[in-house]
Amino acid sequence: MQTSHDPENMFPLQMEYVYLKDLQEWPGNPKEHDIPGIVDSIQAHGFRNPQQVDRATMRMLAGHGRKEALLLMYERGDNPPLGILVENGEWKVPVVYGRAFPSDRAAEAYVLADNKVQQNAGYRSDALRKSLERVIQRPMGLRGTGFTSEEVDSLIQRNRSTIESLTGVRDSLPKPISGETKDDLLDVGNGTDLADKAEKPSPKASLPRLSDELGRLFTVTLKPADYTEAMEILQKIQASQGLVTTSESFMCALRSFPIE
After folding, report:
1. From CA 257, how far away is CA 260, in angstroms rounded?
2. What is the DSSP secondary structure assignment for residue 207, as one 8-state letter?
3. How far apart are CA 157 and CA 239, in angstroms?
4. Are residues 95 and 14 in the same domain?
5. 66-89: per-residue pLDDT in tens?
C-alpha cells in the first residue's frame, strides 16, 4: 500500500504554461460560475490564479469557470489579459501540477471540497464595509471585485439599521452606579468568545486586556443583576454583525453612541 510518504508520490508542485484549448475539464463538475463576473475580474486584475490539474488523469481539478471565461474572451477577439501567453496565435495559461490522486473518487472529492469549503465562510460585515469604502474610491471603483453598487448600498443600509437599533439598546441600558466593589466589575477584553462566558454567568469576569502592548485594561462597571442582560445584548450584536470576540461586539455598540 502506497502512502503520501512514498518517493514516487512526493511530487513537488510544478507550474507550466499549456494551451487553453488543451485543458480537459473534470466530467460532471457540478459548480456553476458567474462567467461575466470572472471575465470582469480577469480584465481588471489579470489572470492570477493558475489552473489545477491532476497529474494522473491530466484533467482540471480547479479553474473550470476561469477556463470558460478565457475561452469566451479568446473567441470574441479580446486582447490576452496579463498572465496569459500567446504562441502561434493561441492562448496559453499557467497550470499547477501536484501529486496524482490515488483514484478518480479521491480527485472528485477534492473538486467538491475546493468549491464548498470556500462557500462555507462568510464576511465580517464591519471589515467588509470598510474595505469596500476604500476600494470604491479607486478610479475603477468596484470593477473586478464581484460586488455591485446595490450590494454595497444594502450593506451600508444594514449597518445604519444596526446602529439605529443599538442606539435604542443604549437608551435602555442601566446607568453605572457609584459604589460598586471590584466584585461588580466586568472586564471586556479581546479574544474571548461570548458563548463561553454566557454558559457560566458571573458578576466578575477577568478577560484579556484590550492591548497587552500598551498595558491598558478597559473595565465596564455593572451591577451583578445586569450581567446576564448585558451578555445577551452583546450576543445579539455578535450574531447580527458576524463578530467573534466580546471586545468587537462592545466596540460595535460604542460606535453607535453619538459624539456630542
Report:
1. 9
2. -
3. 17
4. yes
5. 999 999 999 999 999 999 999 999
